[in-house]
Records
---
Amino acid sequence: MEQKTKIEALEGRQDLTITRTFDLSVELVYKAHQEAELVAQWMGTKVIQFECHNLGNYRFETEYNGNIVFAANGCFHQVVPNEKIIRTFEMEQACIGASLEILSFEKLTDSSSKLTMHIIYQSEQHRAEQLKMPFAYGLNMAHDKLQEILYSLK
Amino acid sequence: MNLRRDVFQAIADPTRRAILLLLAAQAMTAGAIASNFDTARPTVSKHLQILIECELLKQEPNGREMFYHINAQKMKEIDNFLESFRQLWDKRFNSLEAVMNAHQLKKKKSK
């Protein structure tokens, strides 16, 4: 089966491209990126600030057991409805640094569309750090769960 | 069959990752592993079976008991992190699709 989400990260480069086809109109996919309430729902994070227009700022925070486990912020550089969003992104308390994200929204049919996310990092090393993160995070979550189990045994 | 992808599917599950972490410290029997989880024993057995099928674990008998070991060689092969990054985005975008489908339905109803 063809994968709906694809990723291309060429060796020796500091950028990567994520592409995704949606069974949704381009307007709906754009809307999902433009309205704070919807972003919060699919990203699974609290949206603290979200000014989705040229030179607007945004900030996310995710809490788990009363602790902030994820915080990120950035600035919208250019927003063209149903076509393009250019924004910066930086995870707070991480060593990945700010990256530049170029989102292109493309209509395929009336009820399907394609999103291309081109992400440019500060260096090849910064990109490598970002790529490692979901795996390390997953391991930490598993570790936390294990720790909870161990505590409950005591 | 794409074995490489299977390995990533195996480690995509939090319980299986917890099992791998447990076994990283020492080899254990299925019973000892299961005693660390709230889930039913057959569920743990199923997870163990998947980990063995993609060669992340090895079984070795010790007397009458069967011990589970980490296959360090195979674990080292998970050095390409791209697949977990892809799965993260795939999950997010699947949830985007679900959220927007619900959003659309709600709008239709209110019309």
---
Amino acid sequence: MILATNLGFILLSIGAFFTLARLVQGPSLADRVVATDLLLTLLVMGIGVLSARTGEDTYLIVMVIVAMVGFFGTTMVARFIERRGA
Amino acid sequence: MIALVGLSELPVTSVISAVLIVAGCLLGLLGGIGVYRLPDVFGRMHAATKPPTLGLVLVVVGAMLKVNGLAGVTLLVLVILLQFLTAPVGAHMVARAAYESGDQVDEGTVVDELEQADPPEMFP
Amino acid sequence: MITRVLMVAWLTTVWILLWGDLSPGNTLAGLALALALVLLFPPSPAKHGGVHPVAVIRFGLWFAKALLLSNLSVAREIIRPRIQVEPGIVAVPLRTCSPLITAFVANAITLTPGTLTVDVRPQAFGQIGTDPPAGHLQVRNGATVPPVLYVHCLKTGDPDQVRADGLELEEYVVRAFGSAADRKAILKPPPVWPADKNQAGPDGINT
């Protein structure tokens, strides 16, 4: 179990690294907001893996909040792009 | 939930949970790689919402098997519900905003929207 | 009225799921809060259709299978050393007019990998009706014309195949959640695209 969660963390970190590359490089604002949303989803997965490793449930409420914040942020930036362009 | 029944420490539960978690994290990694490699905004949106959503479901089900207490299980069910309800809506809104603000589709083969009349104004 | 009852039930369920505590005190607190919220901010009455449990289960199973298989195909696409995607936006004209079904179909299309709903527009026929009943519908010749979904696909292939898949999805959704008018509407033959501007049938629907 410890081995599996270590492997899970490593995979998530590599995915987050590629997403960060796109966040820096993306030519438009839409690329960057998509990368941010993916980073938040990877964070939620990371909290899930941590909860599976230790068996505690103290951090699960953070999952709910991060998922909601990700959704609200993406929607707000989408409306901004639609009104202002780029 | 499994912990309530007292089966959380069985090796079988750990193995199933480990497999689910690694599979879910693999899908998350694929989402990250896809966001980096695909050529245009819409493709990156495909990669950033679909494999990570399924990966999140797998990781959450894996965590559900190992977490103690009923509060953990219900919170994880809530996270799955939230993700399924919000991820497609967010992706669609960003896709529409990106199209309206001029991100062209990369060598799009069939683009059916250029010669349509404007939609009625939905924002003041 | 029933919309309010359903909303109170949904809010109480979310409260119980958040706290993870099924004791009477917690449930009563959630119920009180849900009632206060619904009385302060009443939801607009939604026209929902009948829910058929067997059809819902069939839709759920089909959707789960589509989700798994298409995720594998998108994963294979991402890993390929040289990416061969042919992106394209395809117009999928629907057959039903209800906004609930349209929202459900658009969300389901976005969740199955390979397709992403970009926009929903009324069928233009070259001009917009003077008084559209809703943002995505249009009245022509006295009848409401169903909207058109614009779907972005990663590997387009044949656009007609994409339209057929979209209409199959709509049929699954309507059989699970649609009202009586919707279930009558999906028995029509699939609409042709591109819409011929002069050729709308007597009831305004493009067949």
